[in-house]
Amino acid sequence: MAELLYRLGKFSARRSILVIIAWFLLLGVTGTAMAVSGGKLSSAMSIDGTPAQQVIDDLKKSFPAASHGNATVVFHAKQGEFTATEIAAIGAELRQVAKLDAVNSAMNPFTTQANKDHQIAQLKAGQRKIANGKEQLAAGRKQLAAGQKKLDAAKALVAANLAKARAGLAQATAGKAQAVAGLAQATAGQQQAEAAYAQAQAGGAPAEQLAAIQAMIDQAKAGVVAATAGIAQANAGIAQATAGIKQLKAAQATIADNQAQLTAGKLKLNEAADKLPAAERKLAQGQRILAASANFRTVSKDNTTALGAVIFDVPASDVEVPQKNAIVAYLSKHTPAGVEVEFSKELTMSMEGILGVGEIVGLVVAGIVLFLILGTFIASGLPVLAAILGVAISATTTMALASVIDMTSTTPTLGVMLGLAVGIDYSLFILNRHRRQLKLGMELRESIALANGTSGNAVFFAGLTVIIALVALNLTGIGFLGLMGDFAALSIAVGVAMAVTFTPAMISRLGMRVLSRKERAALASSDAAHDAPVSPAAVPSKAKSYWPSKHPWVSIVAAGAILVIGSIPLTSMRLGLPDGSAEPVDSTQYKAFVLATDAFGAGSNGMIVAVASLKAPVTGYAQLKAEADIATELAAVADVSAVLPAGMSKDNSKILFEVLPKTGPASAATEKLVLNLRSLSSKLESRYGATLGVTGLVASNIDVSKKLSDALPLYLGTVLLLSMIVLVLVFRSILVPIIASLGFLLSVGATMGAVVAVYQWGWLGTIFDIHDPSPVLSFLPTMLIGILFGLAMDYQLFLVSGMREAYVHGMDARAAVIAGARSGRTVVMAAASIMIFVFGGFAFSHLTQVRPIGLGLAVGVLADAFLVRMVLVPALMTLLGKSAWWIPKWLDRLLPDVDVEGAKLERTHSVH
Q1: Rounded distance, CA 695 to CA 674, Å?
Q2: Of 161, 193, 542, 781, whose CB has the highest number of CB atoms within 10 Å?
Q3: 121 and 31, same domain (yes or no)
Q4: How far apart are CA 191 and CA 62, in angstroms?
């Protein structure tokens, strides 16, 4: 590899214009591809297979509307309460927002609150109505009972009178019949008597006999008169009885009508009584739902703050930045002058402007460090130019591929961060070697080729270790983290390629101007310049003292104590993703978070979504009861402030609930709440036949953090095994890799301890703008382990390989440690300082998620380079002596000779 890089360096020096143009043409191609592809980045960090993601995937299929993203808009009256004019204006602008691209609807907080208040009023009216109904029902039943009693009495009286009338009719009829018979008898008697009188008179009967017969006639006539009178009297009785019967029958018909009316009244009353329990049950379920959602509001009680919402057509992560910007711009422009409008992170978070003020300051400081080392502006500008060009190529390539690969918004930022740091360092290593050789009198192009074959070879292996560590992030099984590692590895690969091609080409174009005027003058005046040994790695047989080697025990104890103490905060580390409270205090995201917290509680910034999946579809009252039952169960969980049924799937088998926590999204109590809600699923299934899924930003963050925590041991073990293999191969030693790996663990512990202290505990919050401490970025530990491993191996290679070379060339073990450390410390200190400043610039980034990455990498480089590699490792190797370089002979024979420092190449191409 050293010989290949030697030839590549010589080719780049001879064809410098071609090489430089080729790189700029490549940038043009990748830049054009980025512009044409229109790639976009996602702010969502999801992991397939987690409980929260499974719920989201299921909703996309069975309940698409529930998977749509949303963002909060906070309206705040600057002075006093909202006026009617302001409320109307806000409603009008939200209706216009609903018409914008990618927006499904916009929730008017005043309408929503009014609807809820109306529901409460309706329930209260329903309660009063039911109470009145009960009273009316009781009064009606009392009236019906009294009416029935009167009707029954009337029935009995009419029936008795009717019987009497019918008896009178019968008696009158019988009397009439008797009178008619008497009349007939009297008439017949009269006729017989008159016939007898006529006969007697004709026969000359005596007067006494005629008088007796006349008396009989008179008696018969009196009987006829009496019978006739009896008949008349009987007829009158019959007529009276008949009229009475008719009147009583009419009374019976009236009573029957009244009875029918009374019966109908009873039926209606019974129907009302039957409906009343159903209405009561429905009202009771409504009251339970309102009780569960009592603390949910969209307008504050003092009418000064309102929470609007923009509902997208797609998940929030799929909404493009220009579409979000259009919403923000419209609301900012049209909101009334007396109203302040602020926006949540879902609307405002983007990765536009990857390089901010902090990052640029870091680059400027890195340039100053380069100038102090190299002594010339021209030479110091070369590593920066190479790094920026390499970063531009890798970043544009990443963005071009973002159109076909889903990647998070931190993916290109990580590549930029690493690309800048290692790009500067790798170019510096080759440039520094070339400068040293020039000052020893080597010919320009030969020096370029040799620097590329020696330091370039070390750069290649150093870059390879970083690339392997980054690509190994795929072993975690976490898609977005693996992609971050892949594209960061791309930036490292481009940085290495730039260092071994572009840097030699630029050095060739610059010629002797890579040296300062003073250095060029000294070289020109030196007659013995060309007689000096050209091997910069050559060291005197007796090296000057080196403090860690002179005081190894003190160095070990001091460095170890610092690293161990720095690791203490790691024991309390919590993982998560930053919420709005982590944003700068002057940002709209932070203002929205604070306004919502003050008016509605911290939980309003992180609603939890719960989905109840029923075994069978429900409608009507069954649906209402299911909503009430499950909402009541959810509301009973500790730290739940309110539960709001938010929708039902089209097949009526899934109910969506919004759960309002009492605590903020990043709170440990909220994390516990999510776990408690999930544990409720078995209870709901046994009671109501419903399984519960929990999702939303908070739940997703918890799942991501857990998955990353579970994957961390595997990844750390893989990295340590990898480090052992690489270091055994490079240094042909058993103890050196063990020392390097233990030192790496100490530096990682101190690094994460510093991150926890700053971001979770809030230490030095004023400096790093940490006003609301929050959990550590969930993927940071895994990512830092991978990156710091690669960088640690860089420093290990550049320092310990020099010790190895000195030892192989005959120095005793202690002197070799001193010689190697002294020969490599300057460039390693410079490279580490540059990385610290570059990474440190990202610690002050305008992007919240980037800050802890920048700080972690800066502290990690500081701890690993200055404490582990330059103090701890030399001290331990001094104590170990020859044992540090022991390796079994059989293993030594099996291992290939990688010649990282290019010692063989030096012997082949050295010129005196």
Answers
A1: 9
A2: 781
A3: no
A4: 115
